[in-house]
Design brief:
alpha+beta; 3-stranded antiparallel beta sheet; 3 helices; binds L-tyrosinamide; Ribosomal_bL12_C/ClpS-like; ClpS_core; protease
Length: 102
């Protein structure tokens, strides 16, 4: 009589305890109308960039059409996009902010 169980040894391995969350890039898109200074304000206000970094990113978007503001988990990225779009709309600028899976 093998007793409880079926007499087969259980070989178990613990899963790694941490899983990396999906990450999302938040991007600004260029347009012809949003003032450069407004984009710099957005980068400082919502992405915690300093004046130099904000200016560099703004000029990159101006010259290349698109640029990265940061990489965040889904909920944080979505919040940033909503905040930037609401702020641009409030000031009647056509600035577009989007997110994409990394
Ligand atoms: N192209 C705009 C201008 O010449 C400036 C600008 C930069 C607009 C970045 C949007 O995401 C942007 N006033």
């Amino acid at each position: 009589d093998p007793g409880p169980g079926n007499g087969t040894a259980v070989i178990a391995r613990a899963k790694p305890q941490t899983r990396r969350p999906n990450m999302y890039r938040v991007l600004l898109l260029n347009d012809d109308y949003t003032p450069m200074e407004f984009v710099v304000v957005v980068l400082r206000k919502y992405f915690n960039k300093g004046a130099e970094d904000a200016t560099r990113i703004m000029l990159h978007v101006h010259q290349h059409g698109v640029g990265e503001c940061g990489i965040f988990t889904y909920e944080v990225a979505e919040t940033k996009v909503t905040q930037v779009m609401d702020y641009a709309r409030k000031h009647q600028h056509p600035l577009q902010c989007i997110m994409e899976k990394k």
